[in-house]
Amino acid sequence: MQRVCFLLKVRADRLDAYRARHAAVWPEMLGALEATGWHNYSLFLREDGLLVGYLETEDFAAARAGMEATDVNARWQAQMAPFFESPAGTRPDEVMRPLTEVFHLP
Fold first, then answer.
1. Which residues are in coiled coils (predicted)?
2. Mean pLDDT for each consecutive 10-residue tract of the chain (106 residues)?
3. Which end of the chain is less crowded, N or C, counting CB atoms within 10 A of the terminal residue's CB?
């Protein structure tokens, strides 16, 4: 099982709205994440907008590709894009870059 951690940046003026969206993630989106291999998925948000994501999956590339192929992900990413500090025209899931794990205590 791969452990994957990534960082994104939420716009400081959108933190409350971002939290509200994640308090009510669409059931269809939750089902798609589970079906495509995203397990133990968590998001942590710092007050300055730094977002830390963590998940476990058998194959991160396959899990990302699986989500990319779903309609619900396209709709979710389009709605979430304005919340992030990322290059214009990119979806949040396109700029996720896994961090290198340097230590793990099992």
1. none
2. 96 97 98 98 97 97 97 95 84 88 95
3. C
Tell me, which fold does domain 2-94 have in CATH?
Alpha-Beta Plaits (3.30.70)
* d(C-alpha 21, C-alpha 104), whole Å: 31
What strands lie across the sheet with 50-57, from one edge to the other?
Answer: 2-9, 50-57, 39-45
pLDDT score for 43 = 98
Whether the pTM exceeds 0.85: the reply is: yes
Catalytic residues: 22
What are 76's two structure tokens?
């979710």
